[in-house]
Amino acid sequence: MKLIPYNFKNEILLRINKIKSILKDSASDAILVASNANIYYTTGRFFRGYIYIPVDKAPIWFIIKPNVYEEEDGIFYIRKPEDINTILKSQGYDTPVSIALEENDLSYSDVIRLKAIFPDSVLTNGSPLLKKARMVKTEWELNEMKEDGLHQSKVYGEVKDCYHQGMTDLELQIEIEKRLRLEGSLGVSRVSGNLMEINLGSVISGANADNPGPYEFTMGGEGVHPALPVGANNSIILKGHTVMIDMNGAFNGYQSDMTRVWSLGETSDLALKAHACSLKILRKLEKEALPGVPVKDLYFIAMEIVNEDSLQEFFMGHKSQVGFIGHGVGIELNELPVLTPKSKDILEENMTIAIEPKFVIPQVGAVGVENTYIVTNTGLENITIFPEDIQKF
Fold this sequence. Notes:
alpha+beta; 5-stranded antiparallel β-sheet; about 20% strand
């Protein structure tokens, strides 16, 4: 098995050169990549091991498992990370003056162990550098995410067929998960941060939308067990309730993020007003979110519209509100930039962001739309195309 297919080598080279450029700007001589998401980003595959990327030479890959790949230049099999330094010296690589490690993504013990491999090097935090590299997507990555959006939209088109009278939110979620897997979903939603856990997404109905969760998610939900207190809580979907469906695809190592709302019969006027406000925000931001615009401006634009409609009590939660309106999307569901009022990021062409202006209406449920967008020179390009009105079961 070839580690990198021939037609993918140029793509990997683009990413490596981007990382090298960021390393130079940060005054780091090299970075040692070890986390799952970043190994996938730098190789297009996942294996247990490490990627050593120096500023001035070709990267070297150290693979622990599996040992099924054909031998290629710059690839070495190791038993343990302590073998890395010996191989680097044998290949003529100088000891870096400063080495970046993923301090935010690895355990403390892992960081200490890897630092010991480079006892004479200054340790710097490489996690922000890799997040910055992944923030702007290549053409290949954009195509993967567009494909993901197509699959996700297809399954959303089957949601009404998944429902039957007397169904619980959990039963509905299971049926949607089945459709996602049959459509090709890998079944895992990678998220950034060791304090965030999620399955394939959330189906939240009625009053459950007002149950705050422990994670920085827009919608909480009680969940069905204290071990994962988020999302559906096995309550029956009742007439007048809204059902917010925020199910992820994860079909190809990348992700798109989309939320739509259904209701059982007619819902409240307040819910309809809030949903219309969400669409108003999206239409405005689709025009205003251009390269060069500060990310924080998107938050303030959204809040201005919410305040004009006097809906701030219900915006981004009710009992518990979050201070953002969206986030980057890619290999992980929650990447940079985060659309907060304190963000220092500036929009760039080919960033991919999910914008999710949502509202919680007590005893009715959650409303609002989430789309995944590509930042272009003419505005935002939606890659999660699906009807945005509240649909009925």
